[in-house]
Every structure is written in C-alpha cells, then in structure tokens.
Amino acid sequence: MFEEVAWKQKRPLTDLLNAQFTIVSPKLAKHYGLPPTAQSTTRYDLSKNSSRGGLLTHGSVLTIGGDEASMVARGLFVLHDLLRGTVNAPPPCVDTNPPPTKVGLTQRGIAAQRIANMNCGVCHARFEPLAFGLEKFDGIGAFHDRDHHGNALRDDGEVLFPGTAKPVKFQTSAELMDLLAGSDRVRESLTWKVTQFSLGRPLTASDAPSVTTIHKVAQAGGGTYSSLITAVVLSDLVLRTKPSQ
Q: What is the mean pLDDT of residues 217-227?
C-alpha cells in the first residue's frame, strides 16, 4: 500500500490515512468483510466501504489496542505518533490493566468513566476521544456494529488538535480519517518522523528551525515522500553535519 501511494501514485503522505483502497490476501479480505476477488494478494477498492480506508483501519495498526481494543492504547498512538502530542505518565499507584467490558458497558463507556473522573479526566480527555472513531473495530481489526456482549458500538466523536481551542466533531470513522489526513498538525508530525528516521537519531529543540524549513519545502513539493526525503537530504541537518570520527 505504501508503494502504491508513495511511489506509484506519488500522492501526499497523509493520503495513507484515508486512501480508499487496500491490498490484502484472500484470508485478510474475508477478515475485513470484503468478498475475496482473487486467489492471491490483490488490491481492493474501498470507495463504497465506509468502515475501511487508510492505515488506522488496518488490523496491523488496530492491534495496538490489545485484545480488548483499549481506548487508552489506541488514543495514545494517535496522540503521540500522528499529532506529536504529549501527556504525563500515570502515577505509579494507578492500576493500568484495562477493565473488561460487560453487558451495558463498552470500551467507550469505560473511557467516558475515566474522563469524568476528576483525578483521571484531565489527561484522559486529551487522548481517549481520539480512539472513539475506532470503537467498531475489535482487538484484531474486525468490524462490528455490536460487541460480543451485544452492546451497540459507535464511531462518532471529536478531535481536539494540539494547539487549537475547539474540538472538531466527526460522525464516522471515515470522517475521522479525513480529518487526520487533512490536518496540518499530522503533516508536520510526518515530517518530524521521517526526518528523525532519516538522521538515525532523536530530534532536539535545536533541530526545530531546520525541520520547519524541511516541512515547508516538502509541502511546496506536494507533501510526497520523495519531496520530503529530498528536502531532508538538502537540509542543513545533513549538509552541515560533521561526520563522526
């Protein structure tokens, strides 16, 4: 999928988050609820499938939430890796084992209880709602309208992008993917991630001006993978770095 988006179609990297196709094997297609159309791994059009589209709806990413599809793990992934946000670690006395769902209580309901708790809500309100749009996907990425207890699941919610004052509402997981794909914050995060990986070291505050320049150059080139890598290679972070002795 990356090869198709980044190399063949030369699309912006953020299109990985809402691309209306996927490339899967017959077994994975069945797991995704797609009628297998070939005997081998092939491309599937998702333009008429409102529940799939983009990397966040891939089972390989959704398993971040563990067997119980934890809102905590999934929300932290979106906050840290897509929005480059930070949140304090829980106090050492807090039991971080996810409580199980039951009849009348979904993972979203459990998250809502944490958010409403005056001791937990200050932090949890910043990241758990980021996973609300993924509640209909279970721990291994299969899509359901109801969980194994029969509880109805939802995929509406809102996103508060770091640095903004008001959250943006979405009604479906597809709308969430579009919001993330269209976010300047996500574009900047991808620039930081790729630059850091290219340099092979963590970025520091002193690197920020150069990364900002890299980002502007890459976006002027369409925000593609090749434009970003070119901007990194031609940046001061590479051209003015002294080789180690």
A: 97
* Cα–Cα nearest to 111, from 154, 167, 49: 154
CB within 8 Å of 40: residues ≥ 6 apart: 25, 26
* Mean pLDDT, residues 204-220 taken together: 97
- CB-based contacts of 245, cutoff 8 Å, min separation 6: none
* Residue 95 confidence class, pLDDT cut points 50, 70, 90: confident
Q: CA 154 from chain center: how many Å?
A: 18
pTM of the model: 0.90
Identity of residue 123 = C
Exposed / middle / buried, residue 220 (Cβ in 10 Å: 0-12, 13-18, 19+): exposed
Query: One-letter amino acid identity for 168?
Result: V
